[in-house]
């Protein structure tokens, strides 16, 4: 699984603003702590890139020509791109702030803003994105392991998850207890589970509705 981790792109701060003064300020801010970044003068130019391969967080103005920051947020949500977004604006009207935050924004700053507070939130955004990526990678990994199970092994796993004894599972499936034990051993091998407790935890991670 190590190779998959290395495939993840370098997290960057995506600065989207048509105001060159604010852009310069934000660039100076992220450079001060050596964070990788990319600058875009408007939302459409940001959307032109391969969004599926992005990692990091977005800092965007609300009012921009062509497409507003709020419209960008809507489009990203439509495309299921879940990067943390920080909004900045000279006009922090209540409706805009509420819409941004209800849309999942990490924060909303009014110009002029505290550079340290913005930097702190950028760092928060990068941590959040990293945590999300790790959860998604873990979910994919467990899904790949689950896909290795045969239909019969899934039936045995379901019995184990429900807390049934091996002999009970064997009786319900019409197989011998030894065969049921063999299936359980194969399941633990395929799911890389070192114990029944871990087997149950992996099943709960893959099927969160179960409890």
Helix/strand layout:
Layout: H1 2-6, E1 12-16, H2 20-31, E2 37-40, H3 43-47, E3 56-61, H4 69-78, E4 85-89, H5 94-102, E5 107-110, H6 115-146, H7 151-161, H8 166-173, H9 177-190, H10 196-206
Parallel strand pairs: 1-2, 1-3, 3-4, 4-5
Characterise this structure:
Strands 2-1-3-4-5 form a five-stranded parallel β-sheet, sandwiched between helices. The protein is elongated and about 75 Å long. Helices cover 55% and strands 11% of the residues. With 211 residues, it is an alpha/beta fold. The protein starts with a helix and ends in a 5-residue tail after the last helix. The protein has helices at 2-6, 20-31, 43-47, 69-78, 94-102, 115-146, 151-161, 166-173, 177-190, 196-206, and strands at residues 12-16, 37-40, 56-61, 85-89, 107-110.
The number of distinct helices, counting runs of at least 4 residues, comes to 10
> What's the total count of β strands?
5
**What percentage of residues falls in helices of 4 or more residues?**
55-70%
- Biggest sheet descriptor: 5 strands, parallel
The fraction of residues assigned to DSSP E strands is: 5-15%
Oligomer classification: single chain
Q: What is the overall pLDDT average?
A: 89
The value of Rg in angstroms is 24 Å
Helix and strand content put the structural class at: alpha/beta
Low-confidence stretches: 1-6
Give the overall shape, derived from the CA principal axes.
elongated
Order of helices and strands: HEHEHEHEHEHHHHH
């Amino acid at each position: 699984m190590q190779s998959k981790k290395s495939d993840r792109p370098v997290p960057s701060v995506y600065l989207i603003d048509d105001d060159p003064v604010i852009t310069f300020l934000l660039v100076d801010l992220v450079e001060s702590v050596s964070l990788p970044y990319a600058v875009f003068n408007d939302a459409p130019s940001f959307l032109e890139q391969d969004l599926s391969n992005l990692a990091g967080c977005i800092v965007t103005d609300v009012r921009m020509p062509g497409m507003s920051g709020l419209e960008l947020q809507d489009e990203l949500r439509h495309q299921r791109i879940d990067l943390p977004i920080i909004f900045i604006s000279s006009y922090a009207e209540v409706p805009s702030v509420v819409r941004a935050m209800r849309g999942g924004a990490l924060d909303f700053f009014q110009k002029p803003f505290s550079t340290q507070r913005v930097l702190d939130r950028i760092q928060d955004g990068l941590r959040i994105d990293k945590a999300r990526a790790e959860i998604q990678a873990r979910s994919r990994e467990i899904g790949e392991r689950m896909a290795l199970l045969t239909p019969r092994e899934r039936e045995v796993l379901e019995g184990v998850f429900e807390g049934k004894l091996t002999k009970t599972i064997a009786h319900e499936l019409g197989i011998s207890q030894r065969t049921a034990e063999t299936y359980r051993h194969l399941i633990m091998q395929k799911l890389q589970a070192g114990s029944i407790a871990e087997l149950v935890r992996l099943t709960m991670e893959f099927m969160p509705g179960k409890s």
